[in-house]
TrEMBL record:
It comes from Gryllotalpicola daejeonensis. This is Response regulator transcription factor. The keyword Kinase does not apply. SUPFAM superfamilies: C-terminal effector domain of the bipartite response regulators (SSF46894), CheY-like (SSF52172). Signal peptide: none annotated. Residues 6-127 form the Response regulatory domain. Residues 154-219 form the HTH luxR-type domain. InterPro entries: CheY-like_superfamily, NreC/VraR/RcsB-like_REC, Sig_transdc_resp-reg_C-effctor, Sig_transdc_resp-reg_receiver, Tscrpt_reg_LuxR_C, WalR-like. Keywords: DNA-binding, Phosphoprotein, Transcription, Transcription regulation. Pfam families: GerE, Response_reg.
Length: 224
């Protein structure tokens, strides 16, 4: 059997932390790696316990979840250890703070009142390197917060993508699943998965959530 997924929790409400800890400890494939009540304590926790996944509240005293996300990922890069996948916990759907946290490096967001099964599925999904929310929801989130913002010019890395990779990028940024992209491009899902992985690698992106962020933040010449 593979090692359990080590999950850390960062939230300023002790009662909420206790409930989530009980949920995580009830799962045979998960283990609880510790908890913190603010972003500063979260940095120390992650550096010491090296969790695989961090559940991060957005609004906290001393250091909020947005800055804590950025700092934790920077600490991992500086320290030479694998960065954790960070799932932002937010009270409000289409929360601009959740979008900012994703831009800071989080792999997605989950509403704090989500069903327990959804949260558990999110932990397992993000540990596999995928987004924790539907790409369509991600697209709607960034369309909401990007209104009125100017896009930046495409970076040099965009020119490294092949024509097929740009088309796959465009479809993924619209929120299509691998199966839907495969049907549109008349290729297998395995081929789509390979193309998406190459796109992420060339653009320096961690997952499809950040792919959507990239699409909304840049003026891409071949993008419809």
């Amino acid at each position: 059997m593979s090692a359990p997924i080590r999950v850390a929790l960062v939230d300023d409400q002790a009662l909420f932390r206790a409930g989530i800890r009980m949920l995580i400890e009830s799962q045979p494939d998960l283990s609880f790696a510790g908890e913190a009540g603010d972003g500063i304590a979260a940095r120390q926790l992650v550096a010491q316990s090296r969790p695989d996944v961090v559940l991060m509240d957005v609004r906290m005293p001393r250091l909020d979840g947005i800055h804590a996300t950025r700092d934790i990922l920077a600490d991992a890069a500086d320290g030479g250890y694998p960065p954790p996948r960070i799932v932002v916990l937010t009270t409000f759907d289409l929360d601009e703070n959740a979008a900012r946290a994703i831009r800071a490096g989080a792999s997605g967001f989950v509403l704090k009142d989500a069903d327990a099964e959804f949260l558990l599925a999110a932990i397992r999904t993000v540990h596999q390197g995928n987004a924790v929310i539907a790409a369509t929801a991600t697209r709607e989130l960034f369309a909401h917060v990007a209104a009125g913002q100017e896009r930046r010019p495409a970076p040099a890395a965009w020119a490294e993508l092949t024509g097929r990779e740009r088309e796959i990028f465009r479809l993924a940024a619209r929120g299509l699943s691998n199966a839907e992209i495969a049907a549109a491009e008349y290729v297998s899902e395995a081929t789509v998965k390979t193309h998406v992985s190459r796109v992420l690698g060339k653009l320096g992106l961690r997952d499809r959530v950040q792919l959507v962020v990239f699409a909304y933040e840049h003026e891409l010449p071949d993008q419809a």
